[in-house]
Design brief:
The complex is a heterodimer. Helix content of chain A is 19%, strand content 31%. By secondary structure, chain A is of the alpha+beta class. Chain A has one domain. In chain A, the strands form two sheets. A three-stranded antiparallel β-sheet of chain A has the order 2-3-4. In chain A, strands 5-6 form a two-stranded antiparallel sheet. Chain B is α/β, with parallel strands linked by helices. In chain B, helix 4 crosses helix 6, helix 6 crosses helix 7 and helix 8 packs antiparallel against helix 9. The radius of gyration of chain B is 27 Å and the shape is elongated. Chain B starts with a helix and ends with a strand. The chains are: A alpha+beta, B alpha/beta. The interface between A and B is large, with 33 and 46 residues.
Chain lengths: 78, 282
């Protein structure tokens, strides 16, 4: 287990997003719960879908994608 | 709040724990949503508190969310999906191996940062591939998705790096080329950059046969690569294939290539669904 990590299983993704006032729009993209037209973006400025969603890092809520390169870069900063 | 009271009572009575932020900072917290576990479970061995949101009432869920946010904001906790956490752990394990340290430290400052990122990812893909071979099953789907992740970020060049690393060409072509700097007069870093760029662009002058290629496409790709290689003065072509289907396709095509180039010398190695053919021009 990596230190200071709260883990969640894939089936709890929407609960986690909900705790952070986010929801998922019709296209499967993560959006602000109170403003569904505002899509959440990653540090690289990319929209992020529920399927790609891997987690959230502190620093104005940095949303992380689950692809190998994103996780490799995350690994360097935790 | 009846629901929350019941959660606190549940934790205290069943787990001898108290629902507060200390619980979140002193233990590993896991959140799940399934039909298989109680609303809260505690694993003393790993000090893991698992919350099952499916069995929590709305007030209990809200309290969980409030505490998670405090843990996130005040205690600098990272929220990570368990498979991604596992990938990071595997990645770190792979990158701590002697071989990875040697490869990554050697190439870190001599290839462009984007290529280095592809190389790092390629080491991981290669380790997953080798593990699946050792376990007796070629994990095609997993490898396909990991390669897809590299392509999404670094395109065909990233994929080429992945293929040529997996086939050993960083060790047998790019590293020896770099070692020429300072040994061969006029062989500068600029010349290394230029030539290593060609090696990457041309997939190390090799053909990596892909699953969706027809037999005709395999033959056409090999002939095209022979033409390109001879243009660079490279008098050989290596052919790689993984999977029983590709092994068969390559074996069907080779006689046609030998007919087209009668002087060619062939070396063929085959084992557990992996084939390597070297064709040399005398």
């Amino acid at each position: 287990m990596i230190k200071d990590v709260i883990t969640f299983e894939a089936s709890a993704k929407e609960d986690i997003l909900s705790f952070f006032d986010k929801s998922v729009d019709d296209e499967g993209l993560i959006v602000e719960k109170d403003n569904p037209s505002q899509r959440v973006i990653t540090l690289e400025g990319e929209e992020i879908s529920l399927k790609e969603f891997a987690g959230i890092k502190r620093g104005s809520e940095i949303f992380i994608k689950s692809d190998l390169i994103s996780l490799m870069n995350l690994s360097d900063h935790i | 709040m009846v629901g929350l009271d019941s959660l606190e009572a549940f934790i205290k009575a069943k787990l001898n724990l108290t629902l507060n932020i200390k619980l979140f900072s002193d233990n590993h917290i896991h959140v799940e949503n399934n039909d298989n576990s109680e609303k809260i479970e505690y694993d003393e061995g790993t000090k893991t508190v698992s919350f099952n949101t499916k069995n929590l009432s709305q007030p209990e869920k809200e309290e969980l969310g409030r505490l998670l946010k405090i843990a996130f904001e005040k205690h600098n906790k990272l929220l990570l999906e368990e498979k991604s956490e596992e990938t990071i752990q595997n990645l770190r394990l792979e990158e701590s191996s002697e071989e990875s340290i040697s490869v990554l430290s050697y190439f870190k400052d001599i290839i462009p940062p984007e290529d280095y990122e592809s190389l790092r990812a390629s080491l991981y893909v290669d380790s997953v591939f080798k593990k699946s071979v050792a376990e007796g099953e070629l994990s095609g789907d997993k490898i396909y998705h990991l390669k897809g992740d590299i392509i999404k970020k670094h395109g065909t060049r990233g994929l080429n790096i992945c293929k040529i690393y997996g086939a050993g060409y960083f060790d047998t072509m790019i590293r020896p080329l770099h070692e020429l700097i300072g040994k061969v007069p006029d062989f500068t870093k600029e010349k290394f950059d230029e030539r290593s760029n060609i090696i990457i662009k041309e997939s190390a002058f090799a053909v990596f046969v892909q699953g969706q290629w027809s037999v005709y496409r395999v033959e056409a790709e090999i002939k095209e690569k022979i033409k390109i290689n001879l243009g660079y003065g490279i008098r050989f072509v290596n052919i790689h294939g993984i999977g029983d289907d590709l092994v068969e396709k390559i074996k069907r095509v080779i006689p046609n290539i030998e007919n087209a180039y009668p002087n060619i010398e062939k070396t063929l190695e085959e084992s557990v669904g992996i084939i390597f053919v070297k064709l040399r021009f005398p």
